[in-house]
Specification:
Elements: E1 6-10, H1 14-26, E2 30-34, H2 37-46, E3 51-55, H3 63-73, E4 78-82, H4 87-95, E5 100-103, H5 108-127, E6 138-141, E7 144-147, E8 152-154, E9 160-161, H6 165-175, E10 181-182, H7 184-191, H8 200-213, E11 224-227, E12 231-234
Parallel strand pairs: 1-2, 1-3, 3-4, 4-5
Antiparallel strand pairs: 6-7, 7-8, 8-9, 10-12, 11-12
Helix pairs in contact: 6-8, 7-8
Amino acid sequence: MSSDSTILVVDDDPRICRLLSRYLTQEGYQVETAHNGGEMRSLFKSRMVDLVLLDLVLPGDDGLSLARWLRGESRIPIIFLSGKGETVDKVVGLEVGADDYITKPFEQIELLARIRSVLRRSQAARDGRQPEASDAEVIRFDGWNLDTAAHRLTAPDGEEVPLTNAQFRLLCALASAPRRVLSRDQLLDLAWSRDWDATDRTVDIHISQLRRKLRDDAERPRLIKTVRGAGYMFEPSEQA
């Protein structure tokens, strides 16, 4: 995987860019670097990129703004690099669609493991190799189509609804077990495989995001229901 993967490092500290570029190149990755949002956008549009390592604090557009821009352009995996280690910062990072969040200073070997893990999950999603999904390539429910091979969710009106990798894995886990209560721990194992420091709050955040994407009423959800003290249940009126 590594020899075919290009990583874009976005950090305003030239020293960190040089360090990561040298280390990841030695591990077999192709590496591009950018020091601000303008350089990132330019490289992203001119090069095929498989993963972005994105500093949270940058001059001009900050990491959160750039992550939102990336999510509007593609489903490319994003790993935040940040000196901010508070839970609220990680929550905000998840809210904008990051796949992982690692706090500075970090061990290079840990970062490498996170990169490999995120790339594996991203490749599995693109290939439709979701172990938690049903054998059918397309799961249909209430007029929605979830194409597990193409990583595509289509609304009843035909509009394609973009999903992050984490949202896609979570929806596959829920949709493949309709009318069955899944605990937060089960969803963490199915959708994140415990590959990083995911928590119950991680699940709640992504459930909230999925409800918005599925146009489900947050106050009285119809598709993804909360089972108090137990977890969540996917309850479509019809599914194929």
